[in-house]
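Entry type: protein chain
Record version: 2
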Amino acid sequence: MSIRAHVQDIKSLYAENDYPSDRLVSDQEALAAFVKEFNRRVGGKYATEAVAEEIRRIRKCKRETGGLPHLGRTFHGPRFSNN
């Protein structure tokens, strides 16, 4: 299944993680934990870079995807860890 079939899953998990997308995709530890949780929830084996690219696409392509949820300036994430 294409990762694009999971736009709503990524958006939901992103809001739950409460960590801005720019920081998420540049923080390798936070991104790896996000991808691990994403794969667990959707039963997938998506690569870290594929998920990072989809996060970027969702953020930039608001007309098609609705964009990522707004977190505001007082975020509290990342909420997921690899422990």
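Comment: The chain has one domain: 3-63.
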